[in-house]
Amino acid sequence: MGVLARIREDIVTARAHDPAAQSTAEVFLAYSGLHAVWSYRVANKMWVAGWRLPARLLSQFTRFLTGIEIHPGARIGRRLFIDHGMGVVIGETAEIGDDVMLYHGVTLGGKSRHGVVRGSKRHPTLENGVTVGAGAKVLGPITIGEWSTIGANAVVTKEAPANSLLLGVPAAIRPARAETTEAARGGITHSEPQ
Question: pTM (2 decimals)?
């Protein structure tokens, strides 16, 4: 998929998720979550090519501009939407699937630096369609199953199967009701190749 097609896809995703979006121009010019994701894509290409310091500098400059810190080593799928964005932190070994939505203040972080080997998996994996509410913290090398929802301000330190609802501190895992899961999917049926 080309750069312009990817940008168009991101804008369509933002407009689908945010009823406050007035126009394509507004989304393109004013949505810091999109700007952070676009900058991440450039920084990630630099990171993968071995240009580690320039990649980190770009990610830190983007953090300064947007309030969103995405480590260039993170792996992010398609159609990530970061709503409002301020205070979002995505760690180096985090993995995010397709059609994920993050609200402001979300942290995808590690739990401890003690006993962790450099290069090992330290951050969470969010599978396709996961929604993470404002202020939630998802910590450690855990996996959150597809189409799960994490409530605002939840602190998640344990894995959760697909279609889970995670609420509280520490987060309790509950199966989501079928109608809630379908509503979260919002009719998303993307199946085109990467």
Answer: 0.85
